[in-house]
Each structure stands twice: as structure tokens, then as C-alpha cells.
Amino acid sequence: MEIIEGLLYIAGDAGLSEEQLIMHVPITKSQLDKVVETYERPNFTIQRHGDKYFLKTTRHMEKYIQRILDDRPGQKLSQASLEVLSIIAYNQPVSRGDIETMRGVASDGPVSTLLGKGLVAKKSMHDERAAHFVTTDYFLQLFGLESLEELPSQKDIMEQEEMDLFFESIEEE
Question: Which residues form a coiled coil (predicted)?
Fold first, then answer.
């Protein structure tokens, strides 16, 4: 267990796939599943996002980590980058032309930012010249998702917007 924990710690945000862990640690898939399922440390947990495993801190650590992060300068995504990221997340694989058609403006800057931050990657499509973009496992990890199926649906988003508008109207009164 300590070897897997150490490897996941070293892998950091990149995580390690099941195949990588089995290749470097003398363990079978079923043993790995059991180790991950029973892993219990006071401040750490092992989570799976996509096809990769990550060593993460527990919810108990959130308030302490948040204090440290609040002291750092912000590295937020721009509104344009968030728009492009959501277009890619919900429509992947999607070409740059498709992104620009949906946004109505050129999107080279936001796409470059997202590629640079490792949130999206290029994917070659058979019989198509244009590169397409897909979200990465790091995207899943950053947003706390195990798979893209956990993205909020259009209905969930509309309900949240209605709730936000309701509470904004209450605050204004």
C-alpha cells in the first residue's frame, strides 16, 4: 500500500492509470481495487477520475488548504476560457471551427490557455483534417468528477439559474 501511495503522491496532478500501477507494483487488478477501496488515512484518500488514480486530501483538510490557497494570487480562468471549456466538455470531440461557430468569436486565446493548463487536449479524428479538442483527466480531477456523465444536465443548470435569480431577488429586497 505504501508503494502505491508514494507513486500517486509523486504523480501529483497527472495521476497514474491502473495499467501503470499494475506494471510498476506487484499487484493484480482485483488486489488494486481492494487496496483503493480500503485505503484509509486521516488526511488522504485515493480517488479515481476517468482511467487514472489520484492521491487527494480529505474534506477534513479543505478548510486548512483553502486558507493556504487564499494567501496565493488567483489563477482564475477568464469568462471566455470558461465558455470554451464548457463547449468542449459538453460537445467533445469538437473542432476549433465548431467552438467559434457556437461562440460567434475567434477562440484561439482561450483554447491555447486551456491547452496550456492541461484541461483540454487535441484529438485526431479519422478522415478529418482539423484537430478536435477533448477534456482531459485533469479536467475531471479539477472539477471533482469521475466521468463526463457527472456533468450537470441542461435541466440542472436551468434549475440552478432559477434558484440563483430567486435568491438574488430576495437579497435585493
Answer: none
